[in-house]
Amino acid sequence: MDRNELKYIGKYHNDRLYNSYDYFGAHLTSKNGKKGVVFRVWAPNASRVSLVGSFNYWNDEADLMERNENTGTWEYFFPEIGEGEVYKYKIFTHNGEVKYKADPYAFFSEIRPDNSSIVVDIDKYKWHNDDWEKKRKKQNLYNKPINIYEVHAGSWRHKDNGEYLNYRELADELVPYLKIMKYNFVELMPLMEHPLDESWGYQITGYYSITSRFGKPEDLMYLIDKCHQAKIGVIFDWVPGHFCRDDHGLMNFDGWELYGGIDHPNWGTKKFDFSKREVKNFLISNALFYFDKYKIDGIRIDGVTSIIQMNFGMEGSPYKNKYGGTEDIDGIDFLREVNTEVFKEYPYAIMAAEESTDWPLVTYPVDKGGLGFNYKWNMGWMNDTLDYIEHDPIYRKSHHEKITFSMHYAFSENFILPFSHDEVVHGKKSLIDKSYGTYKEKFKNLKLLAIYQMTHPGKKLNFMGNEIGQFMEWRFYEEIEWFLLDYPIHDGHREFIKKLNTIYLKEDALWYNDNSWDGYQWIDADNRDQSIFSYVRKGKKDYIITILNFTPVSYDKFRIGVPEEGEYRIVLSSEDEMLASSSNKKIKYIKTDKIKMHSFDYSVEVKLSGLTGLLIKKKTERKRKRK
């Protein structure tokens, strides 16, 4: 190891090294004129480390790695081998144990139940997304529409024989579907290598290794490339709070807990130790790795609450920080550091926090005392909304604040409004099954839910299957129940969602001023007895009026105040869209009356059916061209 290498690796232990993946792991290279692979692993407490693999017939004595005493890093160059070689590290601990470990920096792994690492060239894919990269460098996400489709790659769609689609097959089917349905972002549940399908990817053993269930790294790059060519951004779920306990992974790596030792009570995993410089460098490099090598557009960080709270999920408060509090100071510093570095290198990125408490300043800059994210999942809004929709409409007036309360804090953070996978599993029921009422009333409630989400301040996220009104809870081992589209009411619902998504992307009133009162005004927040809510969303010039009737009571003449005199038209009615049948209807305009209402000088009268949502827009006056 030369002086430059020593300086480089020294930064890993004592300083900030955010491209550690360029050094550690298995890298194709040349040495003394011979091509081969150099292997490097950090195992400071090991007495010996032996490189074993297909290239030496798993002979654990043949290729002992060389130790650098100053850093605890082990290295070995194996000549005349290349891609596809399978390997592990055989680690001899000081207490006489022997461990066969997968490479923490492996870029690829064997498919379960096998778990060895595989040598690959991570840089060989040829990208075709130059136009996308140029465009995203200039974008300001706060004043742009973000409509995210959350996907579990193993259960979105299967082949006819029940097998998974691979990454390339997924690209060829999923990307056109996203385009048709007008989603402009896709969020992929964790694709890092994990041993157990039932964990959905949230218990990781290979942080740099894309799961081999669906193909090779270049195949996933193809999927991302196809998304970008279709002008669809890609967000990865990422789990830096805890790691899997499987023996071949990070746990007790060299006889000691290098990466973290505290048991996570909720998930049967180990919590990362963020006090260690090496752990921070490992994880921050990992986040940057996916932006660098896979060209992703954002990261959603899972379980942020467990990172910033020392006793998350525990009985009492067994752990205290040096000041006597229960905040995890090192975890907080880690989040601030990763966000700072991502935005420094990739200012266009989405960095979204799944944070389930009222922790302040999650989406505020680090220099303002914040955690440095630019978005936070609005879990409070989601829980209140889903609780409201489950109530019998007769009693919804007693839960009126479940809808109105969110506007008290809607602009305290930059929010994403999620109806995610977590809400349609483990007995929580699917979205449509949560909704109260008969079969047909459930669809009406689901459409109301969708309109409310799309018109409430905040960016949008929906889990796959929500758009077709799937009654079964999500099951990771089965595909979405696409056969439901053979039934007109389900196909009609999907068409309704497509139309609503189209309106959302087109109408800047629904997203331009998402983070301030400049983009929102209540018309009537207090109509508790009728359970009807109405408000205005404002864009650069235009505005959209939303009316939501959460009871089955219909009104032939329902009057509502409007901001201006003129003619208004109904842009969308969920009643007309029960089946996809209204596309050819002639546009009808509603004239204002000079009748004061809801603090406005003018008002209009509309027909408002039960369990129906309306979007209303003022007719724009076209300027006549001069002759």
Strand content: 15-25%
* The CATH H-level homologous superfamily of the domain at 3-118: Immunoglobulins
Helix content: 10-25%
Number of helices: 12
- At CATH level 2, the architecture of the domain at 3-118 is Sandwich
- Catalogue the unreliable spans: 579-584
What would you call the shape? elongated
Major β-sheet annotation: 8 strands, parallel, barrel
Q: Which value, in Å, is the CA radius of gyration?
A: 27 Å
Distance between the termini: 80 Å
Main-sheet strand order equals 9-10-13-17-18-19-20-21
CATH topology of the domain at 3-118: Immunoglobulin-like
CATH level 1 name of the domain at 3-118? Mainly Beta
Number of strands: 29
Helix/strand/pairing class, anyone?
Answer: alpha/beta
Rounded mean pLDDT is: 94
Can you describe this structure?
The chain has twelve helices and 29 strands. The radius of gyration is 27 Å and the shape is elongated. Helix 3 runs parallel beside helix 4 and helix 5 packs parallel to helix 7. The longest helix has 19 residues. About 1% of the residues have low confidence. Among the domains are: 116 residues, Immunoglobulins (Immunoglobulin-like); 102 residues, Golgi alpha-mannosidase II (Immunoglobulin-like, Sandwich), CATH 2.60.40.1180. The termini are far apart. An eight-stranded parallel beta barrel has the order 9-10-13-17-18-19-20-21, surrounded by four helices. The protein has a six-stranded antiparallel sheet with strand order 22-23-24-29-26-27. The protein has a four-stranded antiparallel sheet with strand order 1-2-5-4, with no helix packed on it. It has 627 residues and is of the alpha/beta class.
